[in-house]
């Protein structure tokens, strides 16, 4: 029995939560997740995480209790999370670069400013969205790395900050990309970052593959792992190249490495059946004859989810779960409360008709954006009629048992943007209570566990029952159901 199956059979714990990536500036009560720091612009800054079990949403609160007015011009944004770390940015109201912070969960949560990071990214014109951190030995040292693809030269770089040296370096990478990388959809465009044991960050282009960068080595070493070919129903999205929105792939794919050793890739695919047309009646008029017309039509018959996994050292992928939507049966969509987070634009409340509980087959609901949340668990975003709806649900599915574990209603503030506003993270397992053997989460304890941390990094660097469905993608092709 390999490591993956041992882990799956030995534990049913679900230590991952689904974190809303836009922080809330309202002051939250202290709990076991609370941490503090101090900056000149924000004075005391406080971070508190409201942890909730799946499929409920967890929230990240960033506030400045010393200030009467918020110093932020917009919500803080979580860029990345792995294990006990969260990397986020705040947008200050006065003219200044964005500030970046690292939050560490644990018995004594901490919050540290990455001084100079905002100025460096502005000066080097780096998009900080693909940013990640790896611990570097003991003493709180770390390596921060940001991926950068130069479209003009078709080269990739890594901007690396090493806390031991308190300085930045720009390293040119020479990955072993296969030749097919440049025949269609040229370039490498990572959508997320995973962490692999041994100090490697994996920059994931969900269409193509994973670029492993061992940032603890100098110079940084790289290795490319191709992802499985897109499923047949998704090939057109890949072959359309740059004409398709780069974020479209988030609707159908996700990649995660929850134990640092085994990489999992899941992909959704719409399934169709070809139905041939036969003339009605026994008479065929000359005016009805046109050989150029389609001899039939495609009818939508559901979707499937296919999971692949591999250990980092393998040179192949192994197919795991194959799940069809009909295997999940009927679900009861919970009603939306009059007020829930995140709120719809302008605080709009749902209409009275939207509050009626609805029971229907899951195949009658628009399901998209699979998000891997630990071993064998995947969350989906779902809507009743179209992507443009603000009323939505999060569905948690156990892939091994092929069962729906729960549904939670929420309001989608950014419909049709396809930006991932929910992030799977493992903070929960670092917030366990000692008194119950680590089985429960200490979130009801309101004592001020958080410590105030001065700027430990301040010298780092200067510088209907069946709704109208649409094909996942920009084609917006009408689905037609079979039977």
TrEMBL record:
Biased composition (Basic and acidic residues): 438-448
Biased composition (Polar residues): 457-476
Domain DUF1618: 204-338
Annotated signal peptide: none
Chain positions covered by the region annotation Disordered: 334-358, 438-483
Pfam family, one: DUF1618
Amino acid composition bias (Low complexity), ranges on this chain: 348-358
Top-level taxon in the UniProt lineage: Eukaryota
PANTHER family associated with the record: DUF1618 DOMAIN-CONTAINING PROTEIN, EXPRESSED PROTEIN-RELATED
The protein, known as: DUF1618 domain-containing protein
Organism: Triticum aestivum
């Amino acid at each position: 029995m390999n490591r993956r199956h041992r882990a799956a059979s030995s534990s049913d714990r679900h230590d991952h939560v689904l974190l809303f990536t836009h922080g809330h500036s309202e002051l939250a009560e202290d709990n076991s997740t609370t941490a503090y720091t101090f900056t000149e612009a924000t004075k005391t800054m406080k971070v508190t995480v409201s942890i909730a079990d799946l499929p409920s949403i967890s929230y990240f609160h960033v506030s400045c209790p010393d200030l009467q007015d918020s110093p932020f011009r917009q919500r803080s944004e979580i860029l990345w999370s792995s294990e006990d770390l969260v990397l986020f940015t705040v947008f200050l109201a006065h003219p200044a670069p964005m500030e970046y912070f690292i939050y560490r969960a644990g018995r004594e949560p901490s919050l540290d400013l990455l001084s100079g990071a905002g100025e460096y990214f502005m000066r080097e014109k780096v998009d900080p969205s693909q940013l990640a951190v790896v611990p570097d030995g003991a003493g709180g040292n770390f390596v921060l790395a940001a991926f950068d693809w130069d479209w003009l030269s078709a080269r990739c770089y890594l901007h690396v900050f090493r806390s031991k040296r308190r300085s930045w370096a720009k390293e040119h990478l020479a990955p072993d990309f296969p030749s097919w990388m440049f025949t269609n959809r040229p370039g490498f465009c990572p959508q997320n970052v995973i962490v692999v044991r041994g100090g490697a960050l994996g920059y994931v282009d969900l269409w193509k593959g994973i670029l492993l960068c061992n940032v603890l080595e100098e110079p940084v070493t790289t290795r490319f792992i191709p992802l499985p070919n897109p499923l047949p129903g998704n090939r057109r999205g890949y072959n359309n190249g740059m004409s398709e929105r780069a974020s479209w792939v988030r609707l159908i794919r996700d990649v995660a490495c929850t134990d640092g050793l085994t990489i999992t890739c899941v992909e959704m695919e719409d399934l169709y059946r070809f139905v041939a047309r036969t003339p009605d009646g026994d008479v065929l008029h000359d005016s009805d004859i046109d050989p150029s017309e389609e001899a039939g039509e495609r009818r939508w018959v559901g979707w499937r989810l296919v999971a692949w996994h591999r250990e980092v050292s393998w040179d192949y992928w192994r197919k795991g779960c194959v799940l069809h939507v009909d295997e999940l049966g009927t679900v009861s969509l919970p009603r939306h409360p009059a007020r829930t987070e995140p709120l719809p634009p302008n605080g709009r409340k749902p209409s009275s008709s939207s509050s009626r509980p609805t029971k229907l087959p899951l195949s009658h609901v628009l399901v998209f954006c699979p998000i891997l949340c630990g071993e064998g668990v995947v969350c989906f975003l779902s809507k009743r009629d179209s992507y443009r709806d603000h009323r939505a649900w999060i569905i948690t599915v156990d892939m091994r048992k092929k069962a729906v574990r729960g549904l939670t209603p929420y309001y989608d503030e950014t419909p049709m943007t396809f930006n991932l506003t929910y992030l799977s993270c493992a903070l929960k397992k670092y917030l366990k209570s000692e008194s119950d053997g680590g089985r429960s989460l200490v979130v009801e304890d309101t004592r001020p566990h958080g410590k105030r941390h001065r700027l430990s990094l301040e010298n780092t660097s200067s510088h209907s029952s069946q709704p109208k469905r649409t094909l996942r993608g920009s084609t917006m092709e009408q689905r037609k159901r079979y039977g």
